[in-house]
Amino acid sequence: xxxxxxxxxxAGVTNEEKNFNIENFIGISANETAEISTxxxxxxxxxxxxxxxKKKRGLIAFFLSPAGIAVIVASTVAIVYTIVxxxxxxxxxxxxxx
Length: 98
What we know:
Elements: E1 7-9, E2 12-14, E3 19-22, E4 26-28, E5 40-42, H1 47-64, H2 66-87
Antiparallel strand pairs: 1-4, 2-3, 3-5
Helix pairs in contact: 1-2
């Protein structure tokens, strides 16, 4: 293959019916030839389902990060403050009290 950068690659095979993943990495080195044998495993779900899983994992990862925890804490404080302010009773103004 021409113009391919050396490194490790993840490969897969797709056809109209199914997608298959190769579980091992494939190492590419310059000016070397090697034979590889692989076993193909059916991919988990369709491409759309895999993308949805990636988005969910990204969202969970965000809320477990320091920035996500800060968002949760700030939101909780704002909600509690709002509830307290909405439920506290105001003192009645009386012209007789001094």
